[in-house]
Amino acid sequence: MALMITDECINCDVCEPECPNGAISPGEEIYVIDPGLCTECVGHYDEPQCQQVCPVDCIPLDPSRKESRDALMEKYQLITAA
């Protein structure tokens, strides 16, 4: 699954630089995650780094974007091959 940022986001700016795929960017009101680039840090780290640094715990799994670990690894390989 890709991750998502909920409206509890306080725009603290700590998640964006932690994303190894550049999937996090400022949105109109809060940060947003591009599901096409989010691999939940599969291929880079054991756990999603944005979730680790978020002080308000507002980055859950996006239930509308279910992906297996294998699918996330394939996405990682496509992203890093470019």
Helix and strand content put the structural class at: alpha+beta
Give the amount of beta strand, in percent: 5-15%
| Spatial shape | globular
Question: How many domains in all?
Answer: 1
Brief descriptors of the model:
Alpha-Beta Plaits; globular
What does it look like?
The chain is α+β, with helices and mostly antiparallel strands. It has a single domain, classed as Alpha-Beta Plaits, CATH 3.30.70.20. 22% of the residues lie in helices and 7% in strands. The protein is built from 2 helices and 2 strands. Strands 1-2 form a two-stranded antiparallel sheet. The longest helix is centred in the C-terminal third of the chain and has 13 residues, at 69-81. 24% of the residues are buried. The mean pLDDT is 96. This is 4Fe-4S binding protein. One of its GO terms (cellular component) is cytoplasm.
Topology:
Layout: E1 24-26, E2 31-33, H1 49-53, H2 69-81
Antiparallel strand pairs: 1-2
Protein name: 4Fe-4S binding protein
InterPro entries: 4Fe4S_Fe-S-bd, 4Fe4S_Fe_S_CS, PSI_iron-sulfur_center, YfhL-like
Organism: Halomonas ventosae
